[in-house]
């Protein structure tokens, strides 16, 4: 389960989220504040950076890591965007983990979108495919399937509901 809020202040997005994961009978609740910056470089290219510290509720110490990621987006056409990210999870009391991702996102004329993503987090490799539907003004529903290709972790489904709040 994941719940979060975010707001934009100029080119900076501030976010806060909490999530509860349950795998193999073990559960965990975490907190994830995020600071993300992005800027257009022209010709359909945008760059950015994201910092996300991570805390775990029932762990000692609670602080677990900070993900530091560089972001690049190329809008190849009006409907097709290619996203690349690369960085590290700076793990507290453990070896750092590499973070890599490449995705393609296509938006249909009807307003729904599809994404396919290949990502690496440490030794875990996943392939994800998903769909997003605009069900009403400012409301969307997402679902996706992440398939573990190799390394630790599991395959799984994700379902989400998003409400865009306007000022």
Structure described in brief:
The protein is mostly beta strands and 167 residues long.
Strand content: over 45%
Unreliable stretches (pLDDT < 50, length at least 5) are: none
Q: What is the mean pLDDT?
A: 91
The helix/strand order is EEEEEEEEEEE
Describe this structure in words.
The model has no long low-confidence stretch (mean pLDDT 91). It is built from no helices and eleven strands. It has strands at residues 2-9, 12-23, 26-42, 45-56, 63-75, 80-91, 97-107, 113-121, 124-136, 139-150, 156-163. With 167 residues, the protein is mainly β. The chain is globular and about 50 Å long.
Search tags:
single chain; mainly beta; eleven-stranded antiparallel β-sheet; 76% strand
Map the helices and strands.
Elements: E1 2-9, E2 12-23, E3 26-42, E4 45-56, E5 63-75, E6 80-91, E7 97-107, E8 113-121, E9 124-136, E10 139-150, E11 156-163
Antiparallel strand pairs: 1-2, 2-3, 3-4, 4-5, 5-6, 6-7, 7-8, 8-9, 9-10, 10-11
């Amino acid at each position: 389960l994941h719940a979060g809020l975010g707001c934009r202040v100029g080119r900076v997005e501030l976010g806060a989220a909490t999530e509860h994961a349950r795998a193999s009978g073990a559960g965990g609740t975490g907190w994830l504040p995020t600071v993300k910056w992005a800027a257009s470089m022209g010709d359909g290219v945008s760059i950015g950076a994201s910092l996300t510290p991570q805390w775990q509720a029932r762990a000692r110490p609670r602080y677990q890591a900070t993900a530091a990621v560089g972001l690049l987006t190329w809008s190849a056409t009006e409907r097709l965007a290619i996203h690349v990210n690369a960085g590290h999870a700076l793990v507290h009391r453990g070896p750092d983990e590499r973070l890599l991702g490449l995705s393609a996102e296509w938006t249909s004329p009807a307003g729904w979108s599809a994404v396919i993503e290949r990502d690496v987090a440490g030794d875990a490799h996943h392939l994800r495919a998903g769909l997003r539907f605009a069900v009403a003004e400012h409301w969307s529903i997402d679902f996706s399937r992440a398939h573990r290709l190799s390394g630790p972790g599991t395959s799984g489904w994700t379902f989400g509901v998003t409400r865009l709040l306007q000022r």
